Amino acid sequence: MKRKFSPGRVLAWAAMALVVLVTLFPFWWMVRTALTPAADLYGDNSSLLPHHPTLINFIRVLGLTTEAEARAAGGSGAQIDFAAYLWNSIVYCGLIAVLQTLFCAMAGYAFARLRFPGRDLVFGIVIAALMVPPIFTLLPNFILVKDLGLMNTMAGMVAPTILMTPFAVFFLRQFFLSLPRDVEEAAILDGNGPWGIFWRIALPMSRGPLITIGMTTTVWAWKDFLWPLLVGRDEDNRLVTVALGVFLQQSPNTQPDWTGLMAASTLSVLPVLLLLILMGKRLVQSLNFTGSK
C-alpha cells in the first residue's frame, strides 16, 4: 500500500531536511576550509567546493613537512603531534566510558533491585545532583586532585568522572526495573546471589542501554576541553582538544592559521564519527526499549 503525500507530510520532510542541512553545514564548511589552500582562503569563499583542493593542510599539521615547507604552503609553521594526542584522547575517553558505565550499571542495579536502608533517599540525592552545574564542581575537584598529587597525570584527569553521572544511573535504573522478575528468581534457584545475578543476568540483558551510555559518555569525554586543560597541561598527557588550542596559540601570524586549524579539527572528529557509524544501528536499537515490565 502506497503512502499518500499529504501537505503535512511534505512539510515535515522539508523541515527535517532543513534541520539536517543546518546541522551538517558547519561540519562541511570545516572540511572545505581544510581542503582549501591558505592563499585561496579569503578569495575562494563563495563556493561550496574549493576551487583548488589540496591535502597539504592535513600533511603539515601531522608534522609530515618541514617548517619551511609548511610556511611555503601558507601555514604558521606550527605542528601537532597528532598520533600522541590521539592516543591520549583514546585512553582518556576509554577509561571514562568503560569505568563510568560499569559503576553506573552497578549503582543503577542496586537502586532498582536491591533493598537497603535509605535507598530512596540516596537515589533522590543522586538525582538532585542533576541540578548542579558542572562548573560548580570544577574548583573543588581541582583542589582535590592537586592535594592528591595527581596533577598532570591521566589518573588525575579521569578521577572526577570515572565513578558515575546522575543521568547514567537514572537511565540504567529505569532499564533494570523493566527486567522480568522470573529470570532473577530462576537465577536464585540456581544458587546465584545478587552479585552473580548482576554479572550473569542483568549485564548481558542490558547490552543496548550500556552501549548507549558508553557512546554518549565517549562523545562527551572526547570533546571535553576545560578540565583536561587545567589538569593535563603536560605534553605527555595533552588531549586532541587541548592540542588544537595550543596549535592556535602557536600561530605567530597576525591572524589564526584557519586552514591548518580546520584540518586538525577534521582529523579530531574522525574517530568519533567512525564510532558513531559503526555503532549507530546498535544505538538506535537500544533506544527502542519501552521500560515496561
Which features would summarize this protein structure in a list?
single chain; 293 residues; mainly alpha; globular
Q: Which descriptor suits the 3D outline?
A: globular
Q: Helix count, per DSSP? A: 14
Structural class: mainly alpha
- The residue-averaged pLDDT reads 83
Rounded to the nearest angstrom, the radius of gyration is 24 Å
Contiguous uncertain segments of 5+ residues: none
Query: Approximately how much helix is present in the residues?
Result: 55-70%
Largest sheet: none
The count of strands amounts to 0
- Distance N terminus to C terminus? 34 Å
Describe this structure in words.
The protein is 67% helix and 0% strand. The chain is mainly α. α4 (82-113) crosses α8 and α11 runs antiparallel to α14 (258-286). The mean pLDDT is 83.
